[in-house]
Design brief:
292 residues, mainly alpha, two-stranded parallel sheet, 5 strands
Length: 292
Amino acid sequence: WPNTIDKVYRSFYPACKQNKYDILNIHSIYNGRDVLTKYMHTDTYVIATLRHPMDQMISGLNYYGYVNKLRKMGKTIEDFLDNPQYLTNDNTAMLLTWNSQSSVIGLKDFKIPSGLKRSALESNLDYTEEIERFLNWTEENIDFFMISEKFDESLILLKDRLGWRIEDMIYFSLNTAASPPERNNVDTDTLLIKTKEFSYIDYLLYERMKVKLDRMIEEKGDELEVEVSKLRSLNKEFSEFCLERVEVDSTLYGSVKILGNTLRGDRKDNRCCVETRFNEIEYVGEIKRYKG
């Protein structure tokens, strides 16, 4: 990241049998099934997770320290959304804010200039047609969209599509902020209006996929509610079995405090407990040791 898989393949991915991988664990931008299947098997099931664009933007600005940078300038998140030039010298800041979720799943391959707000996009027919082409492309190239705000429901529906058991979906919450992200005292209604203008394509993508997920939830009916309840019960039981406490994890990068899970002393040799509490950095290391 912020390069696509094909651009970093030669530099980062070592040779493997028939150049097909079972696992690729690296940050990169997704640019379609045709590109992905050059390196992974053709039956690879592609999953994406979307979060409400306002929450995603505020979280990113906090996590990478941009709220503090703005504060030192005497500016707020609202000021940045009105005038992105406050952070335009930092390319990463724009990548993390302007339609950031759409950007990591292929938007950069479409003819939409970076940084344009909703009003500029809606007033240009070429841009509106290109946005619609992008939204249709995502549905063709991503098999299943999870919605962060309906994470457990998404997991149950994903389980059905993969033929897994509820027990396979047990998880601990990871990379969770110890306290709510700072909003510079800007009210939610104002931020909602500003972020929808700033990251309009993300909102279109999120709303389309949320409607699609809600339809799946409705179709599954009462059975889904029962299975979600069972998953949450299993998560609670497993957490009580494995964990002594939840505390700040200093191994994760970020300018905000991130919660981690501390195992009970008598569970430190339990493989399921150990592996389920891995943060992303630890998990990548475990995969490398296994494959090595």
